[in-house]
Design goal:
Low-confidence stretches: 21-31, 49-56
Radius of gyration: 29 Å
Number of helices: 12
Number of strands: 17
Mean pLDDT: 81
Order of helices and strands: HHEHHHEEEEEEEEEEHEEEEHHHHHEEH
Distance between the termini: 112 Å
């Protein structure tokens, strides 16, 4: 007998992958390297993915559970920066337009971002929400009000014995592959009684290790302070600590390893040179050093207070929350210290705080729908055309007056 017919293995293989097995397993293609078969008639085709510009998430519109917050609002965070108001009092005693005063102002600018060690999120203020602070021991009074909703913006005015601080701070949020980027923009302006004006910017900060849940914060980017009369600047760069080293130190129970600050003094056009370098960390101290080796400490962070709880509040931050009985009758209904959700959260009633927070947000949406123009108009600040820290045209919010008079009389509009 001769050999039988040669089996058609290729044909069997094609029929197997393209026929019964394809129908049983939902495959529409053949073996590797073969072109998939056409889609069956009548089967709806998937809609194309939206462009990348439409796939982003508006983080400002997301309601975060209260458990992730700390018992302070965004406006109270802005008031907290005057924990180091003594630096401005000391700067006011230095000669006007001098390098020593500019370095002192730079030290205060570094202290503004000293809350970088805290990873908890502050409560969102309602539109028109206010908070004030009167500190007779420091001869300082501060007023902050939320003046814009998206992006959120808070206007601040603070008055000391010999200086006035005005700020309009907007926060822009961007999600990146390495974490969440928060970029504050706006206008920061400090004037002294003798007429000196200073401005500075705030570097962007990043929330790292979001997926692991062990959040850490770090600043990165350019950071400078400028004397507007002379053009002198202190230019610095915030250098982020390596992630591996920061995680290792946190695992060992050490203090958080935050961004390092490096920079130098740069004289303005036609000004005599002044050689000095600045270095330090936001959560530690900032030092100015001259070529002869002399050093001056510009800023030192205050440690967390033992009563600050898990939020690592300093002693100054602990006095910003709560509403003593004598305070309720003197502040307007929009004051953040009167919010029930924040008070319940501070007591550990997270479920009740979430319910109050949801009710407050619903009431805010109803008020916006009923009267959009009135809802979006702040009470104590007004927009004025101006310039930002780089000299570009910018609309900033300035104090319109009347708050402290209404507080003293106990009569609110």
């Amino acid at each position: 007998m001769g050999p039988g017919p040669v089996p058609d293995w290729q044909g069997r293989w094609t029929r197997f992958w393209g026929g019964e097995r394809a129908r049983s397993r939902g495959r529409v293609g053949g073996p590797r390297g073969r072109r998939p078969r056409a889609r069956a008639r009548g089967h709806p085709r998937r809609h194309p993915l939206p462009p990348s510009s439409q796939a982003s998430i508006d983080l400002h519109s997301i309601s975060v559970p209260a458990h992730f917050n700390e018992p302070l609002t965004e406006a109270q965070r802005h008031v907290e920066i005057f924990e180091h108001s003594a630096l401005l009092d000391a700067a006011a005693l230095l000669p006007p337009r001098s390098p020593a005063r500019l370095l002192a102002v730079f030290g205060f600018a570094v202290s503004v971002v000293s809350t970088v060690r805290r990873t908890s999120k502050p409560f969102k203020d309602v539109m028109g929400g206010t908070v004030d602070l009167i500190a007779p021991d420091r001869r300082v009074r501060v007023l902050a009000e939320k003046v814009a909703h998206k992006p959120p913006a808070v206007a601040v005015i603070a008055q000391g014995a010999a200086w006035t601080f005005e700020a309009h701070d907007e926060l822009h949020v961007e999600v990146t592959f390495s974490g969440i980027k928060l970029a504050p923009t706006g206008s920061l302006r400090l004037t002294f009684a003798d007429g000196g004006e200073y401005r500075w910017n705030t570097p962007a900060f990043y929330v790292r290790d979001v997926m692991s849940g062990k959040l850490r914060l770090a600043h990165r980017g350019a950071f400078f302070a400028k004397c507007m009369a002379t053009g002198d600047e202190v230019r610095a760069t915030a250098v982020e600590a390596p992630g591996k080293a920061a995680r290792a130190q946190a695992a060992a129970g050490g203090p958080p390893l935050m961004s390092e600050l490096r920079g130098a003094y740069v004289a303005g056009p036609g000004r005599p040179p002044h050689e000095a370098t600045v270095s330090g960390r936001f959560h530690g101290a900032c030092v100015a050093t001259t070529p002869d080796g002399a050093s001056t400490t510009l800023y030192t962070a205050f440690p967390a207070h033992e009563g600050g709880g898990r939020w690592q509040f300093s002693a100054w931050a602990t006095r910003l929350g709560g509403a003593p009985p004598g305070l309720v009758a003197r502040v307007p209904p929009t004051d953040a210290r009167l919010r029930a959700d924040v008070a319940l959260f501070e007591l550990g009633c997270y479920g009740a705080a979430d319910k109050e927070k949801a009710a407050l947000e619903a009431a805010q949406r109803s008020a916006r729908a009923a009267a959009p123009a009135a809802w979006a108009t702040p009470q104590w600040f007004k927009p004025v055309p101006g310039t930002d820290v780089w000299g570009r045209p910018y609309t900033r919010w300035v104090y319109a007056g009347g708050y402290w008079e209404a507080r003293a009389a106990g009569a609110w509009p």
